[in-house]
Design goal:
single chain, 339 residues, alpha/beta, TIM Barrel, eight-stranded parallel barrel, 11 helices, binds flavin mononucleotide
């Protein structure tokens, strides 16, 4: 019976435990150029020191106007490689493995003067009207994703997560609500995602798995359901995704009626069972006993903790102690746990 404290292996990715730090934008006002700075360094290395097996660096965008805000990270030039390398190397030095979430916010890019999207419909009245991308512009964006992934590999990541969830650009393309295009990217709504996956695979080493976050269901009226996302995930898996990170929603302001502990576990489990592929579950998983049970029951392979890790940087260590395990904190702090 697997435990969250057990190692996990997927292709060449070897994690010391099954605890993941979920990607979380920092909107750090000191970061305007998309490069991680001292804030990000302290933030991510603390979670590495705290025993986290896999750290997923927040949404990192493929072009400046692909960011939600001007204070988000990006990896649109070779100059971004070094600052990411410093951050990634430091996290790895504490035994954590590091992923980066490569993304484009599309019509949810709030600081872009004219955001771009699969559609010209705004996200809501509070958002700007996006420009609908031409077919050639979509093809260009696929190339930007490829370059971003290539730079992330050069910066030393252990794996890459593509952000296909929460109503951002890839999600905008695969959702019938926001893709009524008549070109090839509308005739096949998963094509944009599929091309990005194939582009990522071209630049990832063969041994490096590719992860993708998707929203398993939409909450808006007429939003897609789990059957739709299983078919979508199948396409993405066939294109090269090795593991899914299962979230929900983000396509509209509507959310789940209840978002209690483990509220997205059943979606992750359904996709795992249907496609026989490893999955991460996320969403109020901060009770270590709940996380342990979900992994024991093989409903998910890895458990991702977001806000719980904002509150408790050493959440992984606390979880190990709560489950009767040893301290898994960086060695210099071990003295805090000896009798
Ligand atoms: C401050 C903040 C920023 C977030 N940024 C991202 C992000 O960059 N990418 C993403 O996929 N999800 C993002 N999320 C969602 C989290 O990764 C996670 O899925 C969500 O918070 C639910 O998990 P939790 O209940 O453990 O917090 C963010 C959440 C928070 C609270």
């Amino acid at each position: 019976m697997p435990s969250i404290l057990d190692p996990f292996q997927l292709k060449g990715l070897q994690l010391k435990n099954r605890i993941v730090m979920s990607p979380m934008c920092q909107y750090s006002v000191t970061a305007k150029d998309g490069k991680p700075n001292d804030w990000h360094f302290s933030h991510y290395t603390s979670r590495a020191i705290g025993g986290t097996g896999l750290i997923i660096i927040e949404m990192t965008d493929v072009e400046p106007d692909g960011r939600i805000s001007d204070y988000d990270l990006g990896i649109w030039s070779d100059e971004h490689i070094e600052p990411f390398k410093r951050l990634i190397n430091a996290c790895q030095s504490y035994g954590a493995k590091v992923a980066i979430q490569i993304a484009h916010a599309g019509r949810k890019a709030e600081d872009a003067s004219i955001p771009v999207s699969s559609t010209s419909m705004a996200f809501s009245k509070k958002y700007k009207q996006p420009k609908e991308l031409t077919t050639a512009e979509v093809e260009q964006l696929v190339f930007k994703f490829e370059e971003a992934c290539s730079r992330a590999v050069k910066a030393g990541v252990d794996t890459i997560e593509l952000h296909g969830a929460h109503g951002y650009l890839i999600h905008q393309f695969h959702s019938p609500l926001t893709n009524q295009r008549t070109d090839k990217y509308g005739k096949d709504r998963s094509l944009f995602g599929v091309e990005i996956i194939k582009a990522a695979k071209r630049v990832l080493p063969n041994t490096m798995p590719l992860t993708m976050r998707i929203s398993a269901v939409e909450y808006a009226e007429n939003g897609y359901d789990l059957n739709y996302s299983i078919e979508l995930a199948k396409r993405y898996m066939e294109a090269g995704v090795d593991m899914f990170d299962i979230s929900t929603g983000g396509e509209s302001d509507t959310g789940p009626s209840v978002a209690g502990p483990g509220y997205q576990v059943e979606f992750a489990h359904a996709i795992k069972k249907s496609l026989n592929i490893p999955v991460l579950t996320v969403g109020r998983m901060e009770d270590p006993h709940l996380s342990e049970q979900v992994v024991n029951d093989e409903k998910a392979d890895l458990v991702s903790v977001g806000r719980g890790m904002l509150r408790h940087p050493y959440w992984a260590n606390e979880a190990s102690l709560a489950l009767g395990g040893p301290p898994i904190i960086a060695r210099p702090l071990n003295a805090g746990f000896s009798i």
